């Protein structure tokens, strides 16, 4: 079972294969944003990796991060499965914004259907 450490919150055992956005929200109880419902469109679920950044990413994640000049600065938690220990810092939370809610509940599987590529950096 992988461990997820959320900076300033704690360390949690998380079911292997769980989407990172859901682990942050459900296991760590952090009010992370996911305004688009976790479809790699809004970048509100972005995190900074402190340890354990995955070597691969979805093509959808790479495209939106590149478009928003966030490549190499952040990752989208909605596009990552927990399959090893990770330490992250959520960058947008409901309590840190003027939002009323985090957005539509993410599905358990990555959306859109992932096309895996090697991280370009």
What can you tell me about this protein's structure?
Strand 1 and strand 2 (10-13) form a beta hairpin. The strands form two sheets. Strands 2-1-6-3-5 form a five-stranded mixed β-sheet, with helices on one face. A two-stranded antiparallel ribbon has the order 4-7. The mean pLDDT is 97. The protein is an alpha+beta fold. The chain contains two helices and seven strands, in the order E-E-H-E-E-H-E-E-E. The protein is globular, with a radius of gyration of 13 Å. 14% of the residues lie in helices and 22% in strands. The protein has a single domain (3-96), classed as Beta-grasp domain (Ubiquitin-like (UB roll), Roll), CATH 3.10.20.30. The protein has helices at 20-27, 59-67; strands at residues 3-6, 10-13, 46-51, 56-58, 75-76, 86-90, 116-118.
């Amino acid at each position: 079972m992988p461990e997820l450490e959320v900076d300033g919150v704690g360390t949690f055992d998380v079911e292997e294969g769980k989407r990172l956005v859901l682990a942050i929200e459900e296991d760590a109880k952090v009010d992370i944003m996911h305004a688009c419902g976790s479809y790699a469109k809004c970048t509100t679920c972005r995190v900074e990796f402190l340890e354990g950044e995955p070597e691969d990413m979805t093509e959808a994640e790479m495209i939106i991060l590149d478009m928003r000049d966030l490549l190499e600065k952040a990752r989208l938690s909605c596009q990552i499965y927990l399959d090893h220990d990770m330490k992250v810092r959520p960058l947008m939370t409901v309590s840190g914004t003027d939002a009323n809610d985090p957005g539509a509940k993410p599905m358990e599987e990555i959306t859109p259907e992932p096309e895996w590529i090697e991280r370009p950096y």
